[in-house]
TrEMBL record:
CDD domains xrefs: alpha_hydroxyacid_oxid_FMN
Active site: H237
UniProt-recorded Gene Ontology molecular function terms: FMN binding; isomerase activity; oxidoreductase activity
Organism encoding this protein: Desulfosporosinus lacus DSM 15449
Name of the protein in its database record: L-lactate oxidase
Amino acid sequence: MSETKKMNIQTVRQTAREKLKGFCRVCPECNGKACVGEVPGMGGMGTGTSFKNNVEALAAYRINLRTLHGVKKPNTQIKLFGQELKTPIFGAPITGNNFNMGGALNEEEWAEAMIQGCLTSGAMGSTGDAPDPAMYKAGLGVVAKAQGLGIPFMKPRELPEVFDYLRLAEEAGVLAVGMDVDAAGLVSIPVSPKTKEDLKTIIDNTSLPFIIKGIMTVEEAEIAVEVGAAAIVVSNHGGRVLDYTPGTAEVLPEIAAAVDGRIPVIVDGGVRTGVDVLKMLALGADAVMIGRPLIIAGYGGGAEGVALAIRRMTNELKQAMVLTGCQTLEDIDMDVFF
Ligand SMILES: Cc1cc2nc3c(=O)[nH]c(=O)nc-3n(C[C@H](O)[C@H](O)[C@H](O)COP(=O)(O)O)c2cc1C
């Protein structure tokens, strides 16, 4: 109890530094520089350029102050997948606790921290998939226990396996299901790129909203809309699958413009603060996903740590909305930029 009371961002980071020792340095700025090439691990692939580009692309945007207006209590609510959320922040799908984060938490403990931390802070969490199917199932079990309030993401496995994974998600009663199509190059697991026809077959064969994660071009966003995806996640997988891709903030504006509100656009990669959330929304996203900062929060403080991190980012977003004159999330547009 006294331990709970004392939890704050500093204690969370200190605990995370101990629990993630050898896997994540919990740097003052999480920018991919110290962990170059650490995949498996927490870093970016190869030279780490894709991870670093995510952070640098966001940092390059300047926003300007506007304080002569009536916005005092901005509203960060959003309705997505039929769910009222207090904040446009999603927890990103993360797995591989033993080989990526050192295993101080097992898959179930990690998923519990992520899903419950998101729910108590009014956000929505996700779970991921890794070579061992037990990892997808562990996440799914945690989401099922949370009345289905979470989004499991599966790898782009071969179709028969995809159907099995969809059935499991349907039985668990989840809000929506997704696929990180950008993981098509993994060698440790039978995965492959998906054609438009594959995606149509998948989407036609599930009753669940289906989210495609890992879209980086306008052409593929158009395909996602055409096949009936419920949303896309503009993502380069946190820079972990292909070296030298652009940062997501670089490709987001043209993708969001092309999608033009037909389906929600979520984005991830390098989002670290509420100001970063504001920037992504101004560039056209409806919501963001957060990866590494929530790993640090979850390892450092479990569900409470995750909730603390999301509340903090949401408060920063509110502050940034006051200082840029945005009452609602829809008011956040390119006008906030300098
Ligand atoms: C350790 C680690 C494990 C991940 N596991 C998955 C996964 O299982 N499925 C998935 O779709 N993405 C996975 N990702 C990618 C994240 O969902 C997300 O796209 C990325 O972390 C966002 O960038 P950020 O960490 O800079 O916020 C993982 C990322 C990390 C760092």
